[in-house]
Amino acid sequence: MQLSSPAQAIEPLCESSLGAAVRAAAPLTLGLYGTWMFSIVLVWDVFVAVVLGSRRALARMDRILAWLTRLSGGFLVLFG
Fold it and tell me: How far apart are CA 14 and CA 16, in angstroms?
């Protein structure tokens, strides 16, 4: 099978995904999808920042920070 454009390679993937659902959507609907996703991600990020930024969480993380650093360094070595 020879492809004449990159779009032909992506086309089968879009037919079975969200791309197919939003391909024919109106611009207003696409704007609402984007606003919805932006809002949900923003709320989640703020929630995580508040929870992890509390004094209690910082004190707990301070005790395990050395091990977390070693563990993340080990993963970087493995993936590197």
Answer: 5
* Cα separation, 41 vs 71, whole angstroms: 27
User: pLDDT tens, 40-71?
Assistant: 999 999 999 998 888 888 888 888 989 989 99
Name the packing angle between helices 55-79 and 27-52 (round to 10°): 110
**What does the chain come to in residues?**
80
Measured distance CA(10)–CA(22) in Å, rounded: 15
**Contact, 20 vs 12, CB < 8 A?**
no
Backbone angles phi, psi at 71, to 5 degrees: -65, -45
